[in-house]
Amino acid sequence: MNSTQTEPNSKALLPIMIFLVVYLGNGIYFEYIHPEKGQMGFYVVSVVLAFSIALITAFLQNRTLSFEEKIHICAQGIGDDNIVTMLFIFLIAGAFSGIAKEAGGALSTANLLLNILPGRFAVPGLFVIACLISMAMGTSVGTITVLVPIACVISQNGNYPLHLCTGIVVGGAMFGDNLSFISDTTIAATKTQGVAMKDKFRTNLKIALPAALATLLLLIIYSLRSPGLELGHFPCSFLQALPYFVVLALAICGMNVFIVLLLGILLFTVSGIMTGSLAYASALSSMGAGINGMFETMIVTVLVASLAALMKENGGFAFLLQLIRKKAKGKRGGMLGIAVLTAIMDIATANNTVAIVIAAPIARDIRLEYNVSPERTASLLDTCSCIAQGILPYGAQLLVAAGIAQISSVTLIPFLIYPFLLFLFVLLSILKER
């Protein structure tokens, strides 16, 4: 049933409220009120558990439908072509991520680029490297894990502020997470809107690139006002780095993402064995570990697809659309509605992929109502979720970065130059829309 033909019902949104209480409520409690030593508060309660409780709540609603009918509605939501494609891509992306990490590709790529840069421009160079690595890896957390230790070395050797070096790595990581063809956020945004990745990339680049260039300009000005210091040599292997550059080039050229990922796995296997960083057994185990790392994302996708289908059937989406209609005026209003909805979902879930999957069905209805292009909608979903995720002090990105640098995640916020500039450019792009 189409949500626009369903009677608006605010009670259908109760499962999301339950999720917020269970996940966000416990996260705040264990992170800030009663923290556990050595435990990140927002990881005490699994997001899978929180969504499972929300789904049970949805099943208990709407007594006019039988249990079997509700199961059928969930199955239709899970069986959507875009959801199935997304799940398959997650599997292959997990294998790619696992073997790329084991082969040493990310670290070699980062060190190779650092060795090229003059010491005086280490800070803007670190931002560019973070952008390139995250685009190639398709993961912001993975990029942060690789680069923040390097940022700490640059901070110490070059006498640069640690918060600044760490903050620009986070910003660069979110740039790539937003644009990468193999990022789970890009996969979720494009597949839920039925958009080709290259079309979304072109639309997104018009917003993300100016924000990145503005960030780079500010960092260059900072570098010119600072003394240039020798940073030393970083060990690297061009052969280990090469597969990332090949994958990045093929993805930008618009090659099918399945083929790109499979070629990347093959190239990293060959380069890893040739350089001795991989053996046959470690290649297999690393791919398996990478796939295992995607299981939670895949389970959450299945749960959210089921939950969204039930909430839509029960009138929750119709209620949100009704609310947006009252506030939104024209195409700009519709786009702003998509942006705000996505950001709120990310603030609530602290996971940009999950936020996109939740917001996507509602965003699809909004774009049809307000004549927003699918590419623009996918871009807004991805960009706005990455903006929110990139500045959340309780999000995985800031928590991991702060943990490695041994600083507070809250103190990083003033140094997150790129996410704030990206927010500004998104707002300007919406305001100039006709």
Q: What order do the helices and strands come in, and which of them pair?
A:
Blueprint: H1 14-33, H2 47-60, H3 67-78, H4 81-102, H5 105-116, H6 122-137, H7 140-158, H8 162-179, H9 184-193, H10 197-224, H11 238-252, H12 257-275, H13 280-313, H14 316-327, H15 330-349, H16 352-370, H17 374-391, H18 396-405, H19 417-431
Helix pairs in contact: 1-2, 2-13, 3-13, 4-9, 4-12, 4-13, 5-6, 5-11, 6-7, 6-8, 6-10, 6-11, 7-8, 7-18, 8-10, 8-17, 8-18, 9-16, 9-17, 10-17, 10-19, 11-12, 13-16, 14-16, 15-16, 15-17, 16-17, 17-19
Give your account of this protein's structure.
The chain is mostly helical and 434 residues long. The protein has one domain. 77% of the residues lie in helices and 0% in strands. The radius of gyration is 22 Å and the shape is globular. The chain starts with 13 loop residues before the first helix and ends with a helix.
Quick tags:
434 residues, mainly alpha, 19 helices
Q: How would you sum up this structure in a few lines?
A:
Helices cover 77% and strands 0% of the residues.
SSE arrangement, N to C: HHHHHHHHHHHHHHHHHHH
Query: What is the count of β-strands?
Result: 0
Radius of gyration of CA atoms, rounded to a whole number: 22 Å
Kindly name the structural category: mainly alpha
How big a fraction of the residues is strand? under 5%
| Average pLDDT taken over every residue | 85
**Low-confidence segments, ≥5 residues, pLDDT <50?**
none
Instruction: Give me the number of helical elements.
Output: 19
| Count of discrete structural domains | 1
Distance between the termini: 32 Å
Q: Based on CA inertia axes, which overall geometry fits? A: globular
The helix content, as a percent range, equals over 70%
Major sheet attributes: none
